[in-house]
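Just scan my protein:

. . .
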Amino acid sequence: MIPVDVFIRTAAEAERPAPPPVRKPLLTTMFGDLFSASATVAIALLLLAAIPSIIDWAIVSAIWSGDGDRCRDGGACWAFLREKYRFILFGIYPPEQQWRPATMTAMVLGLTLWSMPRAHWTRTTFFLWIGCVLASLLLLGGGLFGLTSVPTSSWGGLPITLLLTLLSLTLGFPLAVGLALGRRSRFATARLLATGFIEVIRGLPLLSLLFIASVLLPIMLPEGVTIDNLFRALVALTFSAAAYLAEVLRGGLQSLPRGQEEAAFALGLSRGATLRRIVLPQAIRAVIPPLTNTAVVIVKNTSLVLVVGLFDLLSAGRATLADPDWPAPYAETYLMVATIYFAICFGISRYSLFLERTMVQGVRR
């Protein structure tokens, strides 16, 4: 018979910290065996061989100013970006009104930086975001307060990328929470509806959803009824984001032990209070990495809205290359666009790591 004291830990044992993670030195990882050493040496030699050519193309022989004729013989045509950067960033928005999308971009980025510290996760910040979205739509669309009206077909570039990302995540996350809860509901109707929506949306490529919104939806609408292209793209992106986020949240909900809800009910909390205060905070904290991955995918998926006639950042960059006065510097243009996408996605990834470190401090055992 096993003695009872085998299952009883002393106070010193209970407070003993977990062992630190074992991390191999970098040199051991890169040169651990013959294959790793060979791959490391081969990659290093390729980089050393390519660096002089890259420096010569990007700096030494680069064209920093001038017109398209100068760029036909030489290295990187940075003069093209100096000439076309406003079109890449703002698309076909009227040039004399481009201060409006620039202001909108600055507002979104500034409020994003403000919202990062957890101390700023307040009701005031929530209302600031609502005001930012409304002000962004007003600035881009105009028609009030003396602003010239600009149709959504003229919106483009970075503001469209930021606006679609912000709105699809903001509208898709509450819908995803409802879908995740519905899929785990004890009511068969709610469970079937949530499961059907998630499986259908996740089973269709986003490009096909945008194609349906662009081509098939106008055919199905009554004569004389039209829906704005931006709204159609937003609906498709929101449904796609909600379906993928719902599955991520469902994984977080399933990771929680049943005892969390039972303890809350025993304390007299209602089902709604239990979800808001106990279940959802822990579930979201548990799935921060996959939530981050989904957010990064949504940022990059905004490049597909060209299907509905919108010029996002990538589409605007591609359109600039059609200018016959320039030798179509693809590498320079796509490098600029890729740098902007990388800055946004890398920033999201680093912020998620910050959240992981700060949100688990109070729950470590």
Remarks:
- The longest strand covers residues 156-157.
- The beta strands are 156-157, 311-312.
- The two ends are 31 Å apart (CA to CA).
